[in-house]
Amino acid sequence: METYNKNGLVLAETAETVTIATGLDSSSANAKTGGMIQVWILRRDMSPLDASKSGKDDAICGDCPHRGVMVDGKLTARRCYVNLGQGPRSIYVAYTRGRYRHVDASEYAELFGGRLVRFGAYGDPAMMPREVVEGIARVAHGWTGYTHQWRSESAQWLNAYCMASCDSVEDVERARADGWRTFRVARKGDSAKLAREISCPASAEAGKRTTCDKCRLCDGARAGDARASIVIQDHSVIASNRPLGVSSAQLINIAF
Q: What is the pLDDT of residue 256?
């Protein structure tokens, strides 16, 4: 009889990726998100660290600009806040050892009914099968999600579930015109807000007034949605010395 990890499940597999949910048996320890089920998108064939270093994390992150760039064979300027050596690595190891049970939509109501879900604890929800996102959202009490793939025609269905991840005013203008609510990352120290935009209530600059599981503003757009969009200041480890907005080409000329 196989012994599975009760805290995680395999939701879907493709030729390159695997979608895994964790936090089903014990709440997430993430202080910002609170006790939400976490959904991760990983490569099946290599560790998250190897995928990032080789650039093959595009299979799970798409064209997200926060993945980092390769300069002289070294991964630099990675702005993504996910520590690949912690959660993603341990989940990948457990997956390769067969510790997670595979489930399908017939179990979603029992597993996710009345629960709160975070789509994309690592990886972009656009890389998940559509039927998985829609099936879980149908029974869940609530969710959060963000996608950098909002420009892609194939990802437009996600605007009902995810915020458009934006890195400039121009991004926000384009995404809103296409019907998205937005989650903009501003430079560290930049407190300016656009119209219909508020600071993330769980952010340091907003005094960490709440957590994502209580707020749940970042759950996409609805018909006639008048809710505000969100802005948060860059809180990555490189926020101070490599400000947001520096291009990949410019990075080559920066002394690391």
A: 24
- Per-residue pLDDT tens digits for 145-177: 999 999 999 999 999 999 999 999 999 999 999
Percent with pLDDT over 70 in the chain: 91
Q: How far is it, in rounded angstroms, from Cα 175 to Cα 152?
A: 11
> What is the spatial distance between Cα 37 and Cα 137, in angstroms, rounded to a whole number?
12
Determine the average pLDDT of the residues in 74-98: 91
Q: How far is CA 62 from the centre of its chain?
A: 12
pLDDT at 249 over 60: no
Cα maximum dimension of the chain: 58
What mean pLDDT is predicted for residues 187-205? 94
Residue 78: per-residue pLDDT: 85
Here the tokens at position 45 are 């064939």
Residues 6+ apart with CB under 8 A from 21: 8, 9, 11, 37, 38, 39, 40, 111, 117
Do residues 84 and 93 make contact, with C-beta atoms less than 8 angstroms apart? Answer: no
CA–CA distance, 68 with 131 (Å, rounded to integer): 30
DSSP string, 12-51: EE-SSEEEEEE-SSS----TTT-S-EEEEEEESSS-HHHH
Torsion of CA 244, 92, 90, 1, to 10 degrees: 160
Question: Hey, CA dihedral for 220, 244, 235, 126, is it positive or negative?
Answer: positive
Residue 109: enclosing H or E segment and its boundaries?
Answer: helix 108-112
Q: Rg (Cα) of the chain, in Å, rounded?
A: 18
